[in-house]
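User: Can you predict the 3D structure for this chain?
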Amino acid sequence: MRYSVVRLAVVFSLFSCATLHAGEIIPNEKCLECHGDKDLTKELPDGKEVSIFADEAKLKASVHAKKACSECHKDLTEKHPDDGKAAAAVDCAGCHKDQSDSFGASVHGIAQGKGNKGAATCKDCHGTHEVFPLNSEKSQIHYSKVVKTCGKCHADEASDVTASVHGQGLAKGERDAATCVACHAEHKIVGLKEASASYKTTAACSKCHASERINSRFAMPGDRVKTFFESYHGLAGQGGSTLAANCASCHGYHKILPSSSPDSTIHPSHLIETCGKCHPGATQGFVSGKIHTDEEKSGETGMVVNRWVKKIYITLIVVTVLLLGFHNGIAWCRKVAARRKTQGDLVLRMDSNQRFQHFVLMTSFIVLAVTGFALKFPTTWYAHLMGSEEIRRWIHRIAGLVLIAGCLYHVFYACFTAKGRRFLRDIFPRWQDFCDLWTNLGHLLCGRPRARFGRFGYPEKIEYWAVAWGTVIMGVSGLAIWFKIDVTHWLPRWAIDVAVTVHYYEAILACLAIIVWHFYHVMFDPDVYPMNWAWLDGKVPKKLHEEEHPLDKEE
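Assistant: Here is the predicted structure, written as structure tokens:
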């Protein structure tokens, strides 16, 4: 028994030792026995001698104060340094995975991946043992020290930034003044010198110069980004050009100075040189043009003249188009009337009640489509024509209610009136419709005899039942979106998201079906062009009706 206890104790001791070597935290005191010596150095493979002294006071003052040395230097064991194994580079990704992943996609991370050992690492920016939080003035990445930190590798660029308006703002303690990371990002640091980065440069500048808060704080004009994008350079850049000038092309990259500074690239004495980089032979007259000018507010002679020319042309365009449209509209109406007279006897296809139902359906559908897409894409020009979002929303809802009311009336009409019941019998799908579709495909593709339809053929039936199905889907989903709070009393919140998706894509399907299918049969079909007039007066030419619906004996 006593032997068994001893044996278990030995096994437990061996297991404890193994656990210690495998991952037990080594006390900092043990590390500082050696690394607390200020004279402790190490010779690198290239013969250079570096200090490996670790200041305990700095460790305790850093954000990693509660961390043990071995939590970062996980490769070391208690046998160090007797095992002859040097400490490997610390892998910060163990605790900072997201930041490490972003860094891996940066210019520094990519350079490291290609074997460039001189590329910046985490410790080059954040420090090694003395790591402080971002808002600490002791931190190497504090807004007031970022330029200096980056300058350890990018000395010329840091010097230019220090002399720039951004650097001058930082020197005054302005936290909103742009630093290196404001333009190049923090961990996923991007280069902005390549041609492919042209648009990124403009986007980087826009982050601050399009901000009303920053423009107000530093008393800068608030329209600089807007007027740039309205210029040729801005439009070309948005179109994907990598040759068109961006912000840095004129203002410089790092040593950005106000136009009043003699050293600025946009000072009047340097404009010919600056513009001449892209426009060889530029003259004083050429560079006198304005880039960042709001034509509607400027009082300069040239801008005033340009503004009046614009107004005159807009008036000329409106008047000319109206007169031309009026002339051709009258001609079109007369020719259509004359053509209707030559078409012979007419047959009634839609009575006044049916035409009224069609009109309600047509107008509500159009209003719903226009306002619906205006709500989905509120920045488009046609959305602003309908006023505010609230106005568009209520017009959309009212049109939806009109559509639902029209459909309910149609259901009543189809069920409780003689003409409605006959209409429902005639429009109901039958097996013959599938046979007619097959027959017509042979006619369209091979020139065989065409199908013979009764009052309604498969084209009308497909459209009618598609409208019925789509109206139910759009009505239910639209009401669910409108009364979402009430709906969530019975259904989960994600049901509203599904309703929004269904409503949007069903709207696209409905609009495309109307354009491709309905518009062809009532407008673009050469037999009825420019349109089938039944929606207006209910009548179609008797000859056309006999060709399209030869089995419709009652008509």
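DSSP finds 29 helices and four strands in the chain. Residues 99-110+121-287 form one domain.
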